[in-house]
Design a protein that fits this description.
Jelly Rolls; Pirin; 51% strand; iron; RmlC_Cupin_sf; seven-stranded mixed sheet; metal ion binding; seven-stranded antiparallel sheet; mainly beta; single chain
Amino acid sequence: MENKDTTANHKIANYILHKADSRGHANHGWLESYHTFSFANYQNKDRMNFGVLRVLNDDRVNQGMGFGKHPHDNMEIISIPLEGDLEHQDSMGNTTVIKEGDIQIMSAGTGIFHSEKNKNQNQLVKFLQIWIYPNKKNVTPRYDQITLDLKDRHNKLQQILSPNPEDEGVWIHQDAWFHIGRFDKGFSNSYPLKKSGNGIYAFVLKGDFTVGDIHLNERDGLGIWDTESIKITADSEGAEILLMEVPMEL
């Protein structure tokens, strides 16, 4: 496909590259999880966070299994299902199901208990669990989920999260913006950062990309700061990427 973006592909000066095979790995039998940042038994002083992005877990939950009821507080917790579906229950009385195309947010605030279970007997669940430090502590706990039109991310960046309740996607207590795009091979797009001082963390969901002048493969992560925009180019057909713009100051 013809390149739809003519922005120069400038060399990226300030970045950190996390290759997929460098992540922490835990296999609990019913749960297999890859940790971009330190989590549970995976502790790496050089992989604690990227700005306010604290956790990026790439989880696979077996049939009939899941996370039992457990607590959180003062964290913005985002779940992005990639395959299959999960049943959510929490201490606020919510019982829902999240599936591909849905975005789930919990503002844990003063404290919340929840569980996430794969009740299917014949299908795995794959999803991303993301934690963001909030810019307000001890807020009233909140739960929300929405279903997005997957066609709206074809050859463009679909916003899935922002700080604004009136904006597209879910909202959180932080000056962060998330987008997902699914691109034809050779298609390029630019992302201008929305707030000065923010950085951006790109995580490849499927296929291969070039971000700036850096080549990324599936499940690679790239954190970039001190930039006003980035350019992304799909190097394979149907390549999919998650962009997470976050404040760099905790």
